[in-house]
TrEMBL record:
Membrane found in the keyword field: yes
PANTHER family named among the record's database cross-references: PTS SYSTEM GLUCITOL/SORBITOL-SPECIFIC EIIC COMPONENT, PTS SYSTEM GLUCITOL_SORBITOL-SPECIFIC EIIC COMPONENT
Name of protein: PTS system, glucitol/sorbitol-specific IIC component
Keywords: Membrane, Transmembrane, Transmembrane helix
Pfam families assigned to the protein according to its UniProt record, in alphabetical order: EII-GUT
Transmembrane parts of this sequence: 22-44, 64-87, 141-159
Cited InterPro entries: PTS_IID_sorb
Superkingdom to which the source organism belongs: Bacteria
One GO cellular component term noted in the UniProt record for this chain: membrane
Length: 180
């Protein structure tokens, strides 16, 4: 009998934990995202969508800027997860690479700019704890994290863009073969 009671309590407890998680989202990140989206859209309207698109086109004209400066600005100003909305300023074929670039940068930026991804700050602080225990400054570690992150986001953006272009080309060839 105790087994059935424990099983029933565990079963309902799983749903209670899910409900608690859901309420945490409803009272935490969802309102934050709605306010952030509203603020960013208002700022874009205030600056002018054409100007923002022109700036984005300038920042993304060359792949080196597209996968370094542009994702850096997105993560720095909009933080995780709102930063991915910067992809709306890119052509469809560049969106996967931008996302890959930005998502690879949300951890490395936290050492110098913890506001960018505070929910994942424990990754950096866990590594920095060893440096602190040695009596060393964490500044150089944070800078190295940032620099390596920029290199990684550039490489990932470049590789993902190559893969995306290859997939688009293959799909176009398949469509041509079917039509012929």
């Amino acid at each position: 009998m105790d087994f059935l009671i424990t099983l029933a309590e565990g079963f309902i407890g799983m749903f209670q934990a899910g409900g608690d998680t859901f309420m945490g989202l409803v009272t935490g990140i969802i309102p934050l995202l709605i306010v952030l989206i509203t603020a960013v859209n208002a700022l874009i309207k205030f600056i002018g969508e054409e100007r923002v698109f022109k700036f984005a086109q300038y920042c993304t004209k060359y792949f080196i800027l597209r996968y370094t400066i542009f994702p850096f600005l997105a993560v720095f100003f909009l933080t995780n997860p709102m930063c991915y909305t910067f992809g709306r300023f890119l052509p469809e074929k560049q969106k996967p690479a931008f996302y890959d670039s930005a998502v690879s940068f949300v951890h490395p930026i936290t050492g110098l700019f913890p506001h960018a991804n505070p929910a994942e700050l424990f990754v950096y602080t866990g590594i920095a704890a060893g440096i602190t225990e040695l009596g060393l400054s964490t500044g150089p570690l944070a800078l190295r994290f940032l620099l390596v992150g920029i290199v990684v986001m550039l490489l990932r953006g470049f590789v993902t863009e190559l893969i995306t272009n290859r997939m688009i080309k293959n799909r176009q060839q398949e469509s041509e073969n079917i039509a012929a």
